[in-house]
Write a structure and sequence with these properties.
Length: 107
Amino acid sequence: MVTRVINMITHVTQLMTGRGNFESYLYGIGRWELPECMYCDARDTVEHRLFHCSEWEEYRGRAGISGLEPENLTAYMLNSEDNWRAVEEFARATHRAKEAEDRRKDF
Ligand SMILES: [Zn+2]
């Protein structure tokens, strides 16, 4: 249970700070070759993944957060526990999918 809570906090923290499994961040600290998204030509930033990249639209839909804008993300999350958990779910699911894709590419 404690590990699960720590993982949830970690995923949301990475999403809110950009310091996580984002190519632009990893590139900036010398841990990835390119700052671009692996699915399109845009820089892989939190904003790109959370709001714009078409690759992650299915995940936005599943979490029920399609249509969010950077300007209303914080208000949306603070409006209800369900909203917070929806963003948390998006962060967790995309983090796992991205890690699986990274592992697949390493082979
Ligand atoms: Zn993209």
